[in-house]
Amino acid sequence: MSVIPMTNDIILEGIDLTKHFGGGGLLSSPTVVRAVDGVSLSVQRGETFAIVGESGCGKSTLGRLLLRLIEPTGGDVRYEGKSILGLNKSEMRKLRREMQIIFQDPFASLNPRMNVGDIIAEPIWLHGLGRGKEKRERVADLMRTVGLIPTHTDRYPHEFSGGQRQRIGIARALAGDPKLIIGDEPVSALDVSIQAQIINLLEDLKQRFGLTLVIVAHDLAVIRHMSDRVAVMYLGEIVELSETDELFDNPLHPYTQALLAAIPIPNPMNRQPKALLQGDVPSPAAPPSGCRFHTRCPHARPLCKEQHPALEAAPDGRKVACHFWREIQGAGAGSISAPSQSAALSKRLALYRTWRERQDNPVTTSP
To answer: In what order do the strands lie in the sheet with 48-52?
Structure first.
């Protein structure tokens, strides 16, 4: 597999993307669910871009829109400067080789009737990348790359552990030699002890093959460790877009501040007051007027209910959708101590690296 050079140009763009479910057709629901509502973002080649938010905020739907696994209601998706929405099935199939996804559930995403060798070989055959001996050698190489034993190609998904099944999914995503991989909660279904191994594997593969990663997640410790930039979503919209260190050190939006304040601190002697949110997340079928966060925001004012805030640029280049973020920052609200947030994950990662370095043959001992 060739190494893709890492540059700072834009590889993927979402422009005013919208996805509404229901509201049309005889058998569909008359209620319109605004899963994604006017989202614009760009991903630079070679970076790890994270999309984070509560369950139901639309982040997984956004990830699928960016790959055109589902069709948008409005907006556009551009890959390497060209729109992909007008491509026919044949053209999209060719493009799938460069744009892949790792699904959240490593068991549900694998065909239980196919053995591992056939699962990994399918995209190799589909894209004409190898036949016969060449295909088998490529499958064996991919299994070694993700830490699996090549002689296990005849086994079926149910014969592997959760971590191993996710490695199979990663090998399948790599089979077409992609440039871009979207991970939809790639470690959330795994045991805590296995998460660090998959995170390290993804980082190693990114460096080795020059991949661009888009990670959809709700685990802020994972985001803190592996991402370069973060988009925070709330109720179908992006409310803050920032480089990772800046977002964790000094979040601008009240929702981001509340998310970070909710992270458990693994030190009983270092307790901090938490900015708890009031009320429940509104329904995406009936989002509030004005700022969608105003029903739960401790800083809400009458303007927040009346006028929708634009995603405006801050002086340092970050973007935030809040009418009063300057006053909130001036009052010193929401400053979070970053080092404590990912302490538990960092410890797991360090232990895994030490374990891996001590193994004479990590392929035969990978979980």
So the answer is: 99-102, 180-184, 212-217, 48-52, 229-234, 237-243, 319-320, 312-313
User: What's the length of the chain?
Assistant: 367
Residue 133 phi, psi (nearest 5): -60, -40
Number of neighbours of residue 311 by Cβ within 10 angstroms = 18
199, 241, 252, 240: which is closest to 223 by C-alpha? 199
Using a cut of 0.90, tell me whether the model's pTM lies above it.
Answer: no
CB 302 within 8 A of CB 264: no
pLDDT, one tens digit per residue, over 304-356 is 999 999 999 998 889 999 999 988 876 554 443 434 444 555 555 555 455 44
Q: Are strands 74-79 and 82-83 parallel, antiparallel or unpaired?
A: antiparallel
Distance between CA 341 and CA 220 in Å, rounded?
8
**Residue in the structure block whose two tokens are 């058998």:** 27
For helices 132-145 and 162-174, the axis angle rounded to 10 degrees is 130
Residue 267: CB atoms within 10 Å: 9
Kindly report the backbone phi and psi dihedral angles of residue 172, in degrees, each rounded to the nearest multiple of 5, phi listed first: -65, -40
